[in-house]
Here is the input.
Amino acid sequence: MLIEKFYSKNSENISVGIANINSKSGNLSENKKNIVQALNRFSKKNTNLVIFPEYCLSGCFWKPEKKCRSFMEEACLDAQKDWLDEIVSLYVNKTLQYIVFNGLRKNKNNPGTYFNTSIILDRTCNYFDNERTYKKAFLPVLEKQYITSGINDTLVLETAWGKFGFLTCYDICFPRLIQELSYIPGVDALIINAAWKKQGGREYKELKIKDNSYYKTQWDIMLPALACNNQIWVMAANAVGPHSLEGLDYCGSSGIWAPSGINVIKGSDTEEELLLLHNINIVHEIESEKKEFCFTNDFKHISQ
Here is the structure.
């Protein structure tokens, strides 16, 4: 299903596609098929930028470790270079200029470990260059068995429509990362790749409050907060549906949030959907939001 909206009538503004799709652990061929189907639809709709979820090729890690490692070696981005080249040749052009993927890159300094890496597929074909990638900084427990943190890494993509910063999944829990992106290089939009799960329990017995999908509650709170607290656009692609080998569900709810924190397009928390918002005036909306209160200027004033 494709959900399509128009922010404005000005076709010179950016059109952003977000894949609210499942990433099946251990099923490379199915994930590739899903990605190609999404790109086929987006490419027919004059999309300029497409964002896929975290681990869109491989799905998340699972147990047992030995079987998981064997598969991840096959599915890592290094091993899929020819396929990525094919994707670029088929889909990247003057209209669809950027495709954002996330997956594993081998850590050459520590064999047997990886970096969780977001890459930009574009006409430069330099998508493995360090200045064109973002390595995830903060890692949940299971990822720490496989992944090295990219704690000091930063990626800012400068485009004709504005400057885009990158974070991955768990990174959004750490406000300093976002503040450094929004206040120092001054990004206009934040691109987030995620495989954020739904389940997680919180209970307050005396108040008769119980939340069995607490991690989804977190997601629904954090994304608009990131946008309005920093007065930037937030564009997040999250996996949706079952994690095929762990009995968990990704919470989906991918979307785009304006600098006000208001959601302008949002995907399902259970079903695969493609989201497309046309003709977004990135910089104008930020300037408009800052006319009443400019958080950046006020922060600089008190920090002097």
Q: What stands out?
A: The first helix runs from residue 28 to 43.
